[in-house]
Amino acid sequence: MNKKPYRPGPKRPSNATRPRGRNRQMGGKNDKDTNLINDEIRASEVRLVGDNVEQGIYPIEEALKIAEGQELDLILIAPQAEPPVCRVMDYQKFKFQQRKHAKEQKAKSTKLVVKEIRFGPQTDEHDYNFKLKHAIGFLKEGAKVKSYVFFKGRSILFKEQGEVLLLRFANDLEEYGKLDQMPVLEGKRMTIMLSPKKPGSGKKKEAKDAPDGAAQQDTTPAEE
User: Fold this and answer.
1) What is the DSSP track for the chain?
2) 131 and 196 co-located in one domain
3) CATH no. for residue 85?
4) Residue 37 lies in a domain
5) pTM for this entry
6) CA-CA distance, 114 to 135, in Å (whole number)?
């Protein structure tokens, strides 16, 4: 069988009217960062919400006319609702607000960092001060500090000594971190957790605890 020669069809004029739909690059079903708009919405009726419409349930044809009359888009924002919920709004403005909100949420959800510091029940002074210095650095950086005493073998007999060590550690770090929990024994570990203090919180506390007038400087010249 002889194949017919391929003849390309007429090219689409550059000024041809674009089909009604999303004003963005085609993403299809794999584009997770999109909402169906206008003629892409297949529901027979939708619930309209927003400041620029009378809220209620409308047939999809009427909802499209309302959006078109305001030269805006009909945006599907809750496809799982019954009926689906749509907003009449400029799509580009809608996406901008979504990106802005996502950015704000990301800024608020800061990554939690926990640094661990281990002691033995009979840690010497030099080792204690070395680890205290590291803990101060971690708290200043905004990380939490999980400090624990590990009891190996018969050293569990010194658990009271370990508790005293951890409480001393928390007390020495009072300026930089607050104690989230008192020492807790979990198996062979006795643990405390400290969270970093906000800058200036320690100074505020000192000013609050100071007696009235103690923070004021006496500028009265001494009598001769």
Assistant:
1) -PPPPP---PPPPTTPPPPSS-SS---GGG-TT---BGGG---SEEEEESSSS--EEEEHHHHHHHHHHTT-EEEEEETTSSSPEEEEE-HHHHHHHHHHHHHHHHHHSPPP-EEEEEE-TT--HHHHHHHHHHHHHHHHTT-EEEEEEE--GGGGGGHHHHHHHHHHHHHHTTTTEEEEEEEEEETTEEEEEEEEPPTTHHHHHHHHHSPTTTTS---PPPP-
2) yes
3) 3.10.20.80
4) yes
5) 0.43
6) 11
Distance from the Cα of residue 98 to its chain's centroid: 15
**Residue 135 is encoded by which pair of tokens?**
């803990």
Give the residue numbers spanning the domain of 58. Answer: 32-97
The pLDDT tens digits of the residues spanning 125-166 come to 999 999 999 999 999 988 999 999 988 877 667 788 888 999
Whether the CB-CB separation of 105 and 139 falls below 8 Å is answered with no
Quick check: is 105 in a domain? no
- Average per-residue pLDDT for the chain: 77
Higher pLDDT, 35 or 145: 145
> Is residue 175's pLDDT more than 90?
yes
Structure tokens at 11: 């090219």
**211 within some domain:** no
